[in-house]
Predict the 3D structure of the following.
Amino acid sequence: MNDTAVNEEVESREERIARASHEVDLLHLDSGPASWEPVPSATLRALAEKKLAGEDLIAPPSVFGVGPTYLLYRGRAHMFFGDTSSCKSWIALVAVVQEMQLGHDALVLDLEDGPELAVERLVQLGATPEQIGQHLIYANPDSPFTRDAEIGLMLDLMDRSPTIGVVDSMTELLSVHEANPNAQLDVARVHRTVIRWLTQHGAAVVLIDHTGKTPSVAGPAGSERKVSGIDGASFKFTQKEPFGRGVTGKTEIKLGSKDRGGHLRRYADKGVIAVVKLISDPETEAVTVEFSRGGAAGSVAEASARLEDQRHTVLRLVGEQPGIKKTDLRDGCGFIATDLDAVVLQLMHDDKIKMRRFGKTQRHYLPQDVPTEE
């Protein structure tokens, strides 16, 4: 390679780093003193009008379908907490596989192990090398989230839009920031500087944590600020049958004390929102995942196929009836409103459909059918 080519590569990387640095600066524009400026009255009024027109200002969960519902809100933080061996990390990776199989990018910040274990589990859960190579963004951090770290991560994120981000684990994330898990201010600082940074990219962020040692405390170990800082939902994982290589295990997922968006509580049966069975083949070690509770049982492959069928149904109806209203779309699809809302959000994220509002009516179009505004 000649010197000119080398210089061009160096300049290209320098330009990319400069762009990543600029993107990081943009993320911080609304923080600090600027965050105290009142929201414009026109913005507040527009939000009220949208709500009166039938739109959800807090979009329903649209990531990680488990049968009766989706569990995770885009652009919000969630917590999976439970005892050791309750399969929290495994089930978080099930969600990662589900998103990659839909063609979406996924971010994993693994502070507990290395890429070998993460990739092994993803393959066992059915992810292909192509899906992993194309859609997985994986980092194994062991130092604080400094500005240099922000820029380094931004280099991968600024041209991609992961729909899910997994942080494994909250305990180790606090540790690399020398934060005391029992100190509210320390936990709040990490939420503000790291977790909020991740959710600003639009991903549904999952924080994995352990339960407290005190039996009476039905939450993660440490400061209550761990949960109060969550703006999505918290879920408690309880092992019902142990899981391992060649062994079938079962985990119960209960909706915790937090569901900020308020869309999930209706699906919880005495708190239980899903029961997950993980079946490890004794010979191949391939892991099949089945969901039950509150809806039809089914494997993760079946859940992914169901999501894809729903997407095709919505696209077909929108293509056949440009400008179709939400009520007509719901009648034509034949599946529940929360599923429809989640699928529409996914398709809008993927730029497959566009939504336009005329007065109080929401109309949906394929991109090529959107009417020109006069």
